[in-house]
Amino acid sequence: MATNVVMPQMGYDMREGTVVRWYKQEGETVNRGEVIADIETDKATVEFEAYTGGVIGRIVAAAGVAVPVGELIAIITDPGEAVPEVVATAPTPVAAAAPAPAAAPPAPVAAPSADGEVRASPIARRLARERGLDLALVTGTGPNGRITERDVENYQPPADAPIPADAPALTDTPVPVDTPAPAPAAEPVAAPADSRIELSRMRQTIARVTSDSKTTAPHFYVTAAVDMGKAMSLRRDVNDAADPENRVSVNDLMVKACALALAKHPKFNSFYRGDHLQVNGAMNIGIAIALETGLILPGVSNCESKSLLQIAAATKDLIARANSGTLRNDEYSSTTFSISNMGMFDVESFTAIIYPPHAAILAVGSVKEQPVVRDGQLAVGQMMKATLSTDHRVADGAEAAQFLMEIKRVLENPVSLLL
Asked: Which CATH number belongs to the domain containing residue 110 in this structure?
């Protein structure tokens, strides 16, 4: 039986996507769960897996053309089955590719996207940054002139490139060593001029989602100070015994603590649906990751069944693939709770905006040595502030306080993190 493959919604805020590359061609066999395409969203390029097995009967969405969420992009049939004509029509693209001009361009340049941004894969952008290369100078060989990693690696500056204005002039007459060069005249400093910064598609998406969240979900905030002394000691012991590649971070402790707290307070692992709450069985905890192009929130799935070391390994893998642009669809679209940690920036405390349709998000600050009173005696403690942002439609202040106190209890008595 033929199966329609549609443009998936990889995240609450996704409206359209672009197939960057098809890994399978028409007539080729595909297995359930096999990666069949790379799909570019406003935030990243994600691997798209087939949700059924069979044969690629028809590829409907051409590479490089933006397609709305839910529109047909391919058809998978049983072996030997004809493609039904009723579904074999191409979707209406959001932005059709412009026809190629008759004359060749005067110089090779990267093709910009509809919003003026140069089209390039996340790996190509990272490689260009490392090499100090302006992507506007690179010729893209991907779909619609999209710049690939190979394009950046193979780039050679033109032989007739202009000499920089500050390069030293060549002369046949040597300057006497004992003749000091006259000091250059001071140039007047120009007053700073107004400028305009165009927003990338990712930044526009972040602006839209955060505005929608703040205007739709009535936020309230609860903050607690957590004594992290025992948790940090446990972390040191675990890291001393663990493989250097699987070291546990403070954020891993937070993910595990939240998973344990969510088990006792499942309301905070739910979505508001108007007349009911959709309580999620799996605890897929999203982690805010700051990229050069903006903020993304992919998640570690099934944290309720993962050990602390498994969460640490999954988090490292998630961050690495977020930076290389190889995240999977489910890692974007199935998160149920989220954590934003700014402790590495020496931020003591902050409040975070809830990521729809989540019920809450935990904002984590840095662990700092501070004076504390224990048993009537002044001591030095390792303190951390955590702030829970909650959708008031889902829970009230007392419930949020109880949930946050459970996270605090787990971190201050961290042996449960290893159970």
From this structure: 4.10.320.10
- The DSSP code for 343 is G
* Per-residue CA distances from 360 to 232, 250, 314, 323 (Å): 25, 20, 22, 25
Same domain, 137 and 282: no
CA distances 172 to 129, 162, 169, 212, Å, are 38, 21, 10, 67
d(CA 404, CA 396): 12
Question: What is the extent of the structural domain holding 123?
Answer: 101-158
pLDDT digits (tens, 9 = 90+) for 240-292: 998 888 899 999 999 999 999 999 999 999 999 999 999 999 999 999 999 87
Q: From CA 88, how far away is CA 74, in angstroms rounded?
A: 8
Residue 392 bears catalytic tag: yes
Convert the pLDDT of each residue in 54-111 to its tens digit: 999 999 999 888 889 889 999 999 998 888 875 444 444 444 334 444 444 434 444 4
**Whether pLDDT at 172 is above 70:** no
What sign does the dihedral 310-314-317-320 (CA atoms) show? negative
The structure tokens listed for 334 are 């199935």
**Local structure of 364: helix, strand or coil:** strand
CA–CA gap between residue 369 and residue 367 (Å, rounded): 7
Upstream peptide bond of 93 is cis (omega within 30 degrees of 0):
no
Do 41 and 68 sit in the same domain of this protein?
A: yes
CATH number for the domain spanning 350: value is 3.30.559.10
Catalytic residue, from 265, 276, 358, 392: name it. 392
Residues 288 and 351 in one domain: yes
Whole-model pTM: value is 0.66
Cα–Cα nearest to 138, from 159, 107, 169: 107
Tell me, what's the pLDDT at 112?
A: 54
